[in-house]
User: Fold this.
Amino acid sequence: MTGHLDHDRISLSVLGEATDADRAHLGACPVCRAEVEQFEQALRGVRGSVREWGDREFAIASAAPKPLYRPTLTAGSMAVIALLALLAVRFPTSRTAPAPAVASDYAVSDYNDAELMAQVSADLARPVPKGLEVLLPR
Amino acid sequence: MTGFECSDESTLDFERIVEFYRPRIFRFALASLRDRDSAETIAQDCMLKAYSAATGFRGDCSVQTWLMGIAVNLIRDHMRNRRLQFWKRTSGAPLPLEKIAGGESPESIAVLRQQVESVWSAAEHLSERQRTVFLLRFVEDMDILEIAAATGMKEGTVKTHLFRALRTVRFRTQGAPAL
Assistant:
């Protein structure tokens, strides 16, 4: 037997596109026939493995908690931003807002600096915070 | 179950279609992109697109071919976007080879597993079109006409891409330079 089938002709044979001459050669040449069969077997192996892998990964993907769908997340974020912007325009906050609740005992506007510091010093001198003084032994 | 009859669009039972075909679309996307999250997104988007386009489905082809056609386009778009996201590399996941067996000797099974691995590795280097027709033919078991319908290519073009894909895979698995 002279000359085996080259890669192209083996590929065509696997695709079922072999010429009559190639088919005849395959019938007579065990080496080329083995090549074709081996290649077909490898392709079948890929099919089986990919299918198994796909089933496995699909099961994992289906079992995993679903993340928020991206467009929904984007639309939701944009809606929140738009709402916040609208609120900011309609209800502007004053830059001279009173101090937060921590300082409420000191009624900011009614004190000058000296009185404020005196009250702070008095508060710091307490053995326990003002609200807990009722618990102290009399 | 081999598939759905699709001669009448009004008979499309979408819940069953999703249940039956979503794993297949997922598998095809997984094999194409080799990334579970991307495959999940593609399968989800494919079903959404199919649902919104269901009224336009004329039944010229099988439901599987129709869905694969949608998936092929989504995967193509996804790959183009991924090319821009060069920092987001996905590694080629290893193919499970444990179940590759037969009545052969341990040596021949080992050789076969190695060949399967080589073919799978070679398929990663195919062009987008070659990989698509390769997977549709050799993993999804679709014939040339179905692949042509799903990809929008002519029958002859599908054959050409398939032949080139197979030749490249063969060259790579044999250690010879690809043309």
